[in-house]
Specification:
about 190 residues; seven-stranded parallel β-sheet; binds 1,3-dihydroxyacetonephosphate; single chain; alpha/beta
Length: about 190
């Protein structure tokens, strides 16, 4: 099938009370392996292209690879811009066929003002999660996650998925995380 948008698959995640995995890709081989696996597992997935791959000039080629492979799949796949840095970059991604874009406003905004001003499909939270591998068990602040959940109905996203133990992933999903980003572990 053709790529789907984030807005199309997150309601499914909410209905089933699951989180959709978002996997960062930077080579054709990794992309192929992830898409073959999600098709086997019949698990909707988000394929994300991050800033390192974009810096390497791979935005268009990775987008073309995902578009081509997804066409022959039954499982819904989203092509997502991870940590978008500017409006220009977002436009470039949309022109390359991305069906979801993120703007990284982590240094600018708080949840209530931001979601009041901008109609977002998903919102990434900072609860002690971090990119890369954790030293020991991560210290995730589930109370803060619950507080964010209480002030907005927007589906919530957890970055820094690599190395978070299963029980913590489960708790995060129970509170309302609907998308989990994984890069380092891949
Ligand atoms: P990890 O590299 O820790 O899995 O984080 C991935 C991520 O959040 C991409 O935005």
């Amino acid at each position: 099938m053709s790529l789907v948008t984030m807005r199309e698959i997150l309601p499914y995640a909410e209905e089933k009370k699951i989180a959709i995995p978002a996997f960062n890709i930077d080579t054709m081989e990794i992309t192929q392996a992830i898409l073959e696996t999600v098709e086997e597992e019949n698990c909707p997935a988000i394929i994300a292209v991050g800033q390192a791959a974009i810096k390497d000039g791979k935005l268009e080629s990775l987008a073309a690879t995902v578009r081509t492979l997804a066409k022959d799949m039954k499982t819904p796949v989203v092509l997502h811009l991870d940590h978008g840095q500017s409006v220009e970059q977002v436009v470039k991604a949309l022109c390359a066929g991305f069906t979801s874009v993120m703007i990284d406003g982590s240094k600018l905004q708080d949840v209530i003002d931001f979601t009041a001003a901008v109609k977002v499909d998903a919102l990434a939270v900072g609860i002690g999660n971090a990119h890369g591998l954790y030293k020991g068990r991560p210290n995730l602040d589930f109370q803060r996650l619950q507080e964010v959940r209480d002030v907005t109905d927007v589906p919530l996203v957890l970055h820094g998925g690599s190395g978070i133990p299963d029980d913590m992933i489960q708790t995060a999903i129970e509170i309302g995380i609907r998308k989990i980003n994984v890069a380092t572990e891949i």
